[in-house]
């Protein structure tokens, strides 16, 4: 006899998922199956096609042979890699005015995420992680169980910021290495400076 049970991550409700009793297979989950040939070799691996986020949790396998019972368990953790967009793609700001860069992160799971902003100065070649003028949006849950969020960086550049590169770095469990998204800042003169330049 082989029985698979499922316990959701949230809550402690345990439900029978799949069983093989006297050679008869029974399933409560569409598409789930055990390989009959592998089962004869002692492999009771459970196949779950098109896994969904609500199936994350603990899976318990119980084997009973001649009144001897053995049990094992495994934890299924799911991740969904987010899509990331940094806008505007070509920011142009008048010197002394204010502009906002927005890093939009959509469709990620689980909800734990870190978004960092980094400035790469063209004039000094220094890279620094920014800590001021950053506004983190609320993390919103989608109907499919994934999450969306945004982070915004407020800029008020001087002429020295011309050509600086701003990076949005997203740290999430789904990434093997953290991707970096960047834009290059163009700082223009004020209207007064432009007017004087055209007159001169």
From TrEMBL:
Gene3D superfamilies the UniProt entry points to: Immunoglobulins
Name this polypeptide is given: Ig-like domain-containing protein
All copies of domain Ig-like, residue ranges: 82-186
Species per Swiss-Prot/TrEMBL record: Micrurus lemniscatus lemniscatus
UniProt cross-references to PROSITE patterns, sorted A to Z: IG_LIKE, IG_MHC
SUPFAM superfamilies noted in UniProt: Immunoglobulin
Signal peptide: none
GO biological process, one term: homophilic cell adhesion via plasma membrane adhesion molecules
């Amino acid at each position: 006899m082989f029985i698979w049970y499922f316990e959701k991550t949230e809550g402690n409700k345990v439900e029978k998922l799949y069983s093989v009793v006297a050679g008869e297979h029974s399933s409560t989950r569409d598409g789930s199956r055990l390989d009959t040939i592998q089962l004869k070799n002692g492999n009771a691996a459970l196949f779950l096609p098109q896994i969904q986020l609500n199936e994350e949790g603990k899976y318990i396998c119980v084997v009973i042979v001649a009144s001897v019972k053995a049990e094992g368990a495994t934890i299924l953790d799911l991740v969904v890699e987010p899509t990331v967009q940094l806008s505007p793609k070509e920011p142009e700001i008048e010197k002394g005015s204010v502009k906002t860069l927005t890093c939009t992160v959509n469709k990620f799971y689980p909800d734990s995420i870190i978004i960092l902003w980094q400035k790469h100065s063209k004039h000094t070649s220094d890279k620094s992680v920014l800590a001021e003028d950053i506004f983190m949006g609320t993390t919103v849950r989608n109907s499919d169980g994934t999450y969306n969020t945004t982070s915004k960086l407020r800029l008020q550049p001087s002429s020295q910021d011309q050509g600086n590169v701003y990076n949005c770095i997203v740290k999430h469990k789904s990434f093997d290495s953290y991707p970096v998204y960047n834009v290059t800042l163009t700082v223009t003169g004020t209207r007064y400076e432009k007017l004087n330049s055209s007159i001169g």
